[in-house]
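Review form for a predicted model. The reviewer records the input and the model, then writes brief findings.
Reviewer: anonymous (R2)
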Amino acid sequence: MNLSAFSLEGRTAIVTGANTGLGQGMAVGLATAGADIVNVGLMDSPETKAAVQAAGRRCHWIESDLGASPDYAGIVAEVVREFGRCDILVNNAGIIRRADALEFSEKDWHDVLDVNLTAPFFLSQAVARAMVADGRGGKIINIASMLSFQGGIRVPSYTASKSAIAGLTRLLANEWAERGINVNAIAPGYFATNNTAALRADEARNRDILGRIPAARWGEPSDLAGAAVFLASAASDYVHGTILPVDGGWLAR
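Model under review:
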């Protein structure tokens, strides 16, 4: 196989929440493989932009509150105006709320589902419509979780959203594969990000988590770059509806 199949030269990738953490790690990886990057979210990131530009690619920010029913079609239209095309979508943006299920609030339920599930579906729909219209197909990558496979504790809305993302990935793959659109997901394990700061600060939980990870460390955002490039590139053209764990061996334990 020719390694050029992994090249993203000339492609444009939307990465939601690319300003920090996992989104930033994947955005920089995609840029290194040749893609221009559009960061969609509440905040721009000079750090992400500098890393993308250092890879020789363009980086554009579209301000959007993904938890407030944004204009999804408008986001895609702006990408097409700026770059001429939209080839890749990474639905990375996500939030988490922690509380015992007996005490969990309706607001925390809806806030998490709006960002983690509703926004990925309707942004995927808008992107897929553009991909179908231009006839070139493309790649959609959802971000699942270990809690797409497991229940977890004290994160009911997060677990519900990530379990649903796994099912949604399969459904969209079933409907859109014949249209030349690959829909897959990456399931990160335990990564050092803002979302896991509370876990890492809890000495007992941190010890228990590390004790189960065969790689014996928390993941770094850059650890997701290879999986993102693979699923965004022609190398994965016959891969549809898969959930790819990048977890240091967590699920194998």
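Findings: The longest helix spans residues 106-134.
Further findings: The helical segments are 21-32, 46-54, 72-83, 106-134, 156-176, 197-201, 203-212, 225-232.
Recommendation: see findings above.
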